[in-house]
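Reviewer 2 asked us to include a model.

Predict the structure of this chain.
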Amino acid sequence: MPPPELAAAARLDKWLWAVRMFKSRALATDACRAGSVCIRDEPAKPGRDVHTGEVVTVRQGIITRTLQVVAVPRSRVGAKLVAEFCTDLTPPGEFEKARIHRMQQVLAREKGSGRPTKRDRRLLDRLFE
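Predicted model (structure tokens):
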């Protein structure tokens, strides 16, 4: 008999919300309907049951997260307990893409603003030290 805090299966949107991939269940449902969530490389509907051992792919912005279902919680779990319910299989390159994108946003200059001034260059140098 499974422990009382575990369920046999759960709706995909509820599982994504429970393991803190989305802030609300409505956001998880919207992502599923938009085709941003896949199981076995097929778009998954929010009401699809998710089972232990399945691999779930979630596209969030420019990052594509890959998670393996370890267990299904009955309700939302704390951030420290998420590792007990899913294994993150996301390649490190995905997180690197996000870091590079963030840096590009910081370094972006408004079009038509001209060359950086001496002060701007010094601030950029301090940023990379």
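The helical segments are 12-18, 25-34, 92-107, 118-128. The two ends are 56 Å apart (CA to CA). We have added this to the supplementary material.
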